[in-house]
Design brief:
about 550 residues, 20 strands, ten-stranded mixed beta sheet, metal-binding, Rossmann fold, 5'-nucleotidase domain-containing protein 3, binds magnesium ion
Length: about 550
């Protein structure tokens, strides 16, 4: 091919001397003149250009053009890949930071309230084994499940919290904030279901809100929930037992009702708690992570004249053993009010249930009417109304910490205007994963590749479509790569492939702040204001990496 000088120097061309044809907008080098689209006749006034085009015909010309059209995509890919590789990776996130969903000024907080389990006391993985083994034993002894299930061992790391269990279909799955099923994270027993199997079961990728939250637009449909969310850390071994037993039934072709199995497992694990309390109390250091910062944390709050209270569902003796190990024998000195066996969330929702006194010496309950709350006395049951009425602690001066977004945080913030903090232990693993260099590179490239696909998807040419399909396959692999590093089955607690999970939407709604451990607050003064960041909305999107 002979070269031709086109009408105008190209502004974009990297090679010096390249030109842009004014008619078709295509860039040509001086030695190659091939129009981009056959339907557009090159309008260059230069005779040499016309005569050059006229030399092309038939297949040769089309092949050359196709080569050039896919070449256009390949060049775009190379360019964006080079750009991605040249980008600086984001800085590491501090795993001990406190994150704000809502502005919170600690100067306004005079009263600090705490849940106990997984808020003050963080349990070691050994706790999961205890609950699993006790639950399995009760399934066999009380509910007469086959003896063979005693061989089913706990599989650590199988489930994450925040999953939904479909009590009708016997499926454990992960939902995003739009109630969409995350494909690839749907399990029947221990077996993952394919996309086709999921669509066959649900006919849709979106679950109706009435099935998830138990209500719909029609009042008569109230309490139609078919999904149960497993939102606390005690439910992780419960999910493990549920899936192991379901898998046993499936493998052995034993007919079972998923709802009966679910209720039996739940009941077994729940009724194992008194036994678990006894086992843990006898050897607390085996089950509870020590935290030498907890006492300094309480010291700082007391030195700043803050009031402290504890509202926990656990019994006194169990809490006492753990707190003695975590804080010291005198731990009760830090608390102005202690309420055990509170039966949350009813503690926050019931209007009438008397608060009562527990006698530590005799280990029994006292029938006296409670007219004031005294330091050093152990109370049980009651309601948040009595706590507020007897102390005068109200509204935004109270900051309550819990690990359960619903039973600890939802009602106190929605009904009583308390400020709320969530303790989410999984953040330690989640942030360590986010900080991994390979993860950052993959997440970065996923964003840019997605943009590339979106920009070029409308091409009609079959060869170009093949290139697009190749890009889509690469995107699918990337999405899976950055999912499985969190958890091979269910991915991150906080995200589906790209959307927030159902769990994180609720968490962000009910928690003003959240962090991995209560003592991370020591990194901030008691006058600190936590400011939420201006998050990027889709219409404000300017960066490839958010
Ligand atoms: Mg708790």
């Amino acid at each position: 091919m002979r070269g031709v000088i086109l009408s105008k120097p190209c502004r974009n061309a990297e090679a010096k001397g390249s030109k842009r044809c004014m008619a078709v907008g295509q860039v040509y080098s001086q030695v190659h003149c091939v129009p981009y689209d056959l339907s557009v006749q090159c309008q260059c006034k230069l005779q040499s250009c016309r005569s050059h085009i006229s030399n092309y015909n038939g297949i040769n010309l089309r092949n050359t053009q196709r080569r050039h059209s896919t070449q256009r995509l390949e060049e775009a890919y190379k360019k964006i890949k080079a750009k991605c590789q040249s980008k600086k990776l984001p800085k590491d996130v501090n795993p001990k930071a406190v994150f704000a969903c809502n502005e919170l000024d600690l100067k306004e907080v005079n009263v600090y309230g705490f849940d106990y389990d997984y808020t003050l006391a963080c349990y070691k993985p050994s706790m999961d084994y205890v609950l699993y083994n006790l639950g399995r034993q009760i399934l066999i002894e009380r509910f007469k499940y086959p003896l063979e299930i005693s061989q089913l061992e706990y599989k650590p790391g199988f489930a994450v919290r925040g999953l939904h269990y479909d009590i009708g279909k016997g499926v454990l799955l992960k939902l995003d904030s739009f109630l969409q099923i995350q494909f690839g994270s749907v399990y029947k027993g221990l077996k993952p279901l394919s996309v086709d199997e999921v669509l066959k079961l649900y006919k849709n990728r979106i679950i109706p809100i009435a099935h998830v939250e138990g209500h719909s637009k029609n009042a008569s449909d109230f309490n139609q929930a078919k999904m149960v969310q497993l939102a606390d850390l005690f439910s992780v071994p419960e999910m493990g037992l549920l899936c192991n037993v379901a898998d046993y039934f499936e493998r052995n072709h034993i007919d079972y009702h998923p709802e009966i199995l679910f209720r039996d497992v739940k009941s077994s694990v729940k009724s194992s708690h008194p036994l678990m309390h006894k086992i843990v109390s006898e050897n607390v250091s085996e089950y509870i992570e020590s935290n030498e910062k907890l006492r300094p944390f309480f010291d700082r709050l007391k030195n700043s004249n803050k009031k402290l209270f504890l509202v926990t569902n656990s019994p006194y003796k169990f809490v006492n053993k753990g707190m003695e190990m975590l804080v010291g024998k005198d731990w009760k000195e830090y608390f102005d009010v202690l309420i055990v066996q509170a039966r949350k969330p009813r503690f926050f929702t019931d209007v009438s249930r008397p608060i009562r006194v527990y006698d530590e010496q005799s280990g029994s309950h006292i029938w006296d009417r409670v007219t004031k709350l005294e330091k050093g006395v152990i109370y049980y049951e009651g309601t948040v109304k009595q706590l507020q009425d007897l102390t005068g602690w109200r509204g935004h001066q109270v900051l309550y910490f819990g690990d359960h977004p619903y039973s600890d945080l939802a009602d106190v913030t929605l009904e009583h205007g308390w400020r709320t903090g969530a303790i989410i232990n999984e953040l330690t693993h989640e942030i360590a994963t986010l900080n991994n260099v390979e993860f950052k590179k993959n997440a970065n490239w996923l964003q840019m590749l997605t943009q590339l696909i979106e920009d070029h998807q409308d091409c009609e040419d079959p060869d170009e479509q093949k290139v697009l399909q190749k890009w889509m396959a690469e995107r699918d692999k990337l999405r899976n790569d950055i999912k499985v590093v969190f958890n091979p089955q269910f991915g991150s607690v906080f995200r589906t492939y790209h959307n927030p999970t159902y769990f994180s939407r609720r968490l962000f709604r009910f928690a003003d702040i959240y962090t991995s451990n209560i003592t991370n607050l020591l990194n901030y003064s008691v006058k600190h204001t936590f400011y939420p960041r201006r998050g990027v909305m889709p219409h404000e999107y300017i960066s490839y990496f958010v």
